[in-house]
Prior knowledge:
- With 452 residues, the protein is an alpha/beta fold.
- Helices cover 37% and strands 19% of the residues.
- It contains 17 helices and 20 strands.
- Helix 3 (112-119) crosses helix 5.
- The two termini are 21 Å apart.
Amino acid sequence: MAARGHTVRVVSPLYASVSRAGLTADGPPLELTFPFGTRTAHFFSAQVAPRCTVSFVENALFFDRPGIYVEKDESYPDNAQRFAFFTMAALSGAHQRHFTPDVVHLNDWQTGLGALALQTGYGASTPSLLTIHNLAYQGVFPKSAMVELGIPWSRFDVDGVEFWNELSFLKAGIRFATAVNTVSPTYAQEIQTAVAGMGFEGIIEARNATSPVVGILNGIDTAEWNPATDVLLPARYSAADLSGRGVCRAALYERAHLDPPASGMPLFGVIGRMVEQKGIDLVLAALPPFLEHGARAVVLGSGNQAFEKAWRTLAARFPRRLSVTVGFDNALAHLIEASSDFFLMPSRFEPCGLNQMYSLAYGALPIVHAVGGLKDTVVDVGQVNGTGLVFREPTVDALRGAMTRAVELLRDGPRYARAQQLGMRADFSWGHAAGEYERVYQSLLVRPGEVR
């Protein structure tokens, strides 16, 4: 957005994981008083590009912790206080720094209360846009949090922040934001159904009746995710010259302690959270027959402890055929994308997804369930201009069928090469999304009675 000429200030909590390098103190501290007590916000900023400033809200009590929202699979019990404080610090800090925004862009439940504050006159009724990145996370707290945060009880009803007799930050955002969007066109439709609505489908449908929920597909950071310039790879390559992929694959085999696949069999890549949403149980069940016939797989991720244990058990069963790394390793993630023949992403639901777009850019054909952003970004090879393998039902049989088709595709060299080239040449940068967000922002600035 800044590159398009707009002035942008991005605000985030100063989590313990944020590097302090390059940050400078930004103005005086700010004291905010809530019924639960007075807390002080310190601000640090960095100018990351012309017209674009990233600011961080520091409060050691709230944000200097091992996790961001959770620790050891348990949500922090004071999350309502933490993110009410952060949201009001962001809005108040902007005023204190004489930054008067035309639009406030809120993201997910953590900032939902900002829509309520703005709609009730805080910040001269500045219009707001709420982006829902994942409807499964709703910021639901006991209604006693209404008292802790000082939210008027008049807002605790079906038309306000009440959700099944509890307080929902996400509902506050959906209900009071000037506009709402999601991160892919298909997901915007799915969340109006009982299948993907997560109990919010009625709220979304009511919102959509008066102000349509827009789906804007996320982009990828092509400065970081570009095989032609990727400094984390042992060799660079492009759609015009794929020779560097072989170097990357050899490096991955060495690092992951894998033997090369049997003739005509693929290398599968898996990166992501080991949770049911991502269909990790489907992969666990579908993969063994392919490993038995000479395929290879490399897995990177963490999450549910039962899934982590299952992956370690499977890796012990298939030494030098399956490599499993539990945790986060950015360099390994890049190497997996640059080496795999196919990338497995059978999510049960996926608001947008980024790894399938990374895979397309790096020449690894995605195997995906036809939902959300996966459906919007991957075209099945059975269609014109196909770039991956798409299956319709989130079952082991459906995934195994797609993987079988993938093996057949790999053995048909020209067809595989065509799909790979189409994927690598597709444009998933933020340029298109920025234009769509710009149009939404501009629509919010039109006053009643004005003509666009």
